[in-house]
Amino acid sequence: MEATKLTVLKDALREIIDAGGYIPDQESFNLLYQVVRGAAAEVCAVNERGELLLHYREFTEWPGEWGKVKSWYIPGGLIRTKDRTMEEECHGNLKKDGVLNQIQFIEVCHSYPWKRGEHPFGWLFVSNLCVCRLVGELCVADGMEDKFKFVDEIVPSTVPHHTKFQEEFFKWRNRNAHLFNR
């Protein structure tokens, strides 16, 4: 890389840091996460019985063929650059998806580092399966009641890796059955 371009890159990165980690546009975000590995929280939200909450979503914002994906998956999202606990990150991602409950973070039960080219946006991310117990009965945003369901077995998903993520969760739950009223 030319020295002048490297100087511009360093200045831009300093601006992002000074702005609290805010990346100014989607294209910059996509490019950065093709170079730097980011993190995601796949929130394995469970009820008292240890049943897994799945979310039905149509991924119309994804590029190309990925934009046709309509399936059940484990809700979640990016772990932001702010100084927040995993519980706060998980709660924020569930809330973004329409789950209004408070949660109790239990632990990360599995991590999967996406390989180059696997993610629809080309991102290099690590998906962290975060087991969280919902406090109280499931409470979702108005009009979203049919977009969530608890399951006690794997539901095949066309969302990349989400069938495998369910398999990993249920293996973890079987090893930790004492945590649930089963």
Can you walk me through this structure?
It is a single chain. About 25% of the residues lie in helices and about 25% in strands. The chain is of the alpha+beta class and about 180 residues long. The strands form 2 sheets. It has a 4-stranded mixed beta sheet with strand order 4-1-6-5, with helices on both faces. It is globular, with a radius of gyration of 18 Å. The chain starts with a helix and ends in a 7-residue tail after the last helix.
Q: Return the average pLDDT rounded to an integer.
A: 91
Q: Indicate the overall shape.
A: globular
Sheet with the most strands: spatial strand order? 4-1-6-5
Radius of gyration, CA atoms, in whole angstroms: 18 Å
The count of β-strands is 7
**How widely separated are the two ends?**
58 Å
Classify the helix fraction into a percent range: 25-40%
Q: Which regions contain 5 or more consecutive residues with pLDDT less than 50?
A: none
Strand and helix order: HHEEEEHEEEH
| Strand percentage | 25-35%
Helical/strand content category: alpha+beta
How would you characterize the largest beta sheet?
4 strands, mixed
Helix tally?
Answer: 4
